[in-house]
Structure formats: structure tokens, C-alpha cells
């Protein structure tokens, strides 16, 4: 089995997307981000881009969660960087899932320009998690009628009739009496 070795001064470019629990606090997310930045630096890699995509709906439930906080990393390095990042992601309880993809195989590491703002982990400021009811696709398209809630006032009072219906029912009642 042969292993591909990159030349000195060259690296591979990877993307990792990881999904955090939707109820994670800002400190927990920051702790994970700083740990990953430390791992990339320790394994002689370079972060090139970090984006926080925020809380989004998952394609399917993961560990009974319908939503998750997505974070995107792009970095340069070798296979050791990837294995160490994935090992650290497995260790954190706040991480639901992750995936790493090789973007380019042979990149000149010195030619890549990186802006300081692109590699900062933003502080995660999320609104409190609500118990929002996710509508099915059928309900969104209007194929299923929405559920109607009965008000207490409508339960106590009988439905109101039109004036025409009232006169008809009164007339029918008068005929029955005679």
C-alpha cells in the first residue's frame, strides 16, 4: 500500500463541517473552536477560513435533535491534521456530527493569503431554543388543512346563525306549534 507524500512547502486543502447541539452555550462552542484552532497549529497546519452558519434544520433527526449549529472550517495540512481534528471532535459531547472533505491535493502553502477576520471563531450568539413545531412538507404546501384550535368562548356559545336562517327556524317552530 503506497502513501502519497506531499513535497516540502506544499500541503493538502481540507474542509470540515461539524454540527453542534442546538442548545449549546456560547462558551462551549468557543471552547471547541479554540481547541480545533490549537490542534491545526500544533500539527503544522494553517486555518484559512472559519464560518459559523448558525442554527439550521437537520435533514434527519440526530440524537433526537431536529436542529443543529453548523460550523465550517477550511485549512491546509496533512493527514495527521485531519485525524487529530476528527479525534477531538469525537471527544466533545457538544458535537453531533462532522465530515471532512479533501478539496485540493497539492497546494503551495506560502501562496495562500489568509485574512485575519476569516480565521476567527465568532462568538456564538443564538436565540433561546424554542419548541417550534416543524410543519411537514404537505402542510407547507397546503395539502393538509391546518389544525384549528377551539377557543373557550366558542365552546360555551352555540354557533351563530345568519338572519335568514333565524327567520326560517322561527317560522318552522311556529308551524309546529299550530
Word description of this protein:
The protein contains five helices and four strands; from the N terminus they run βαββαβααα. It starts with 9 loop residues before the first strand and ends with a helix. A hairpin with a 2-residue loop joins strand 2 and strand 3 (65-77). The mean pLDDT is 78. The chain has helices at 26-42, 79-91, 137-141, 152-156, 163-177; strands at 10-20, 46-62, 65-77, 95-108. The protein has a four-stranded antiparallel β-sheet, with helices on one face. Helix 1 runs antiparallel to helix 2. The longest helix has 17 residues, at 26-42. It is an alpha+beta fold and 178 residues long. The radius of gyration is 29 Å and the shape is elongated.
List keywords for this structure.
178 residues, alpha+beta, 5 helices, 31% strand
Strand order of the largest sheet: 2-3-1-4
Morphology: elongated
Total number of beta strands: 4
User: Which oligomeric form is depicted?
Assistant: single chain
State the end-to-end distance.
104 Å
Q: List the total number of helices.
A: 5
Describe the sheet with the most strands: 4 strands, antiparallel
Mean pLDDT: 78
Radius of gyration: 29 Å
Helix/strand structural class = alpha+beta
Which blocks of ≥5 consecutive residues have pLDDT under 50?
Answer: none
How would you spell out the order of helices and strands? Answer: EHEEHEHHH
> Roughly how much helix do the residues carry, as a percent range?
25-40%
The share of residues in extended strands comes to 25-35%
